[in-house]
Amino acid sequence: MSVFEFKSAQELGRTFDQHGVKYLFFGKSGAILLGYSDTTQDVDLYVDKNRDNCGKLVAALLELGFRLTENEQEEIGRGKDFIQLRNGPFDMDLIFAPDGIERFEDAWKRRVEKHSFPIANIDDIIGSKQAANRLKDRESLPRLLSFREWMRGIR
Amino acid sequence: MANIANYAADWEDFEAAAKRSIEQHMLNSFVHTYKPVLDDAEYRSFDSMEEYRHWCNENLPYWLGYSRD
């Protein structure tokens, strides 16, 4: 396992595009791609939970080098709500029903394209952390809110 | 309004980050740290976010910050 670098993101984006996977970079990893400065360990992807998209996702993950058993492929293809992957080139969490967001389509319409990646809007990233309300979310929210204000200032 | 002062310090960080290349920015941002229990399985899946939150609450060390309490 290696750390997620820009070239990893490019490879992920290229592979997902080739397979037609509909997804958004999400969570702190999404914020980092928007320019947020902080640290994180894994990549969070918000994936459209429909069977066709999940099937494409399985193919893309296998091509990227994630080692998935037949049962795991079936589970991902079915679209569970949360899947944690530590069996590939980098750590990744697949989120199909993030807290605070009703429908993928809504987040997709609000997405930001940066560095050719589809990234969830900072409002959705913050809203989801507010809804999740874990200790680590509460700790990171003041700085994320500060980042959103900074983004508004530079637009 | 104490946040205003914090914002100023944060904004210096954000401005500095914006001047770095995306490659460097990501090298600075994505780090690997071992998280006990969480990183001890190659694969986990949960049917619902509620099930995931419950599992985190019951199994992860509190200091990792995954608890809502």
Number of helices of chain A: 7
- The overall number of domains of chain B is 2
Shape call of chain A: globular
CATH topology of chain A: Beta Polymerase, domain 2
Query: Largest interface: which pair?
Result: A-B, 54 and 45 residues
Give the helix/strand class of chain A: alpha+beta
Average pLDDT of chain B, to the nearest integer? 91
Number of domains of chain A: 1
Got a strand count of chain B?
1
Strands in their spatial order, largest beta sheet of chain A: 1-2-4-3
Write the H/E string of chain B, N to C. Answer: HHEH
Calculate the terminal CA-CA distance of chain A, rounded to whole Å. Answer: 37 Å
Oligomeric state of the chains? heterodimer
Count the DSSP helices of chain B. 3
CATH architecture of chain A: 2-Layer Sandwich
Structural notes for this entry:
The complex is a heterodimer of chains A (about 160) and B (about 70). Chain A has helices at about 5-20, 25-35, 50-65, 70-80, 105-110, 120-130, 135-155; strands spanning about 25, 45, 80-85, 90-95, 110-115, 115-120. With about 160 residues, chain A is an alpha+beta fold. Chain A has a single domain (about 5-150), classed as Beta Polymerase, domain 2 (2-Layer Sandwich). In chain A, α2 runs antiparallel to α6 (about 120-130), α3 (about 50-65) runs antiparallel to α4 (about 70-80) and α6 (about 120-130) runs antiparallel to α7. The termini of chain A are far apart. Chain B has about 70 residues and is mainly alpha-helical. Chain B folds into 2 domains: about 1-30, no CATH class; about 30-70, no CATH class. Helices cover about 50% and strands about 5% of the residues of chain B. The chains are: A alpha+beta (about 160), B mainly alpha (about 70). At the A-B interface, α1, α2, α4, β3 and α7 of A face α1, α2, β1 and α3 of B. β3 (about 80-85) of chain A pairs antiparallel with β1 of chain B.
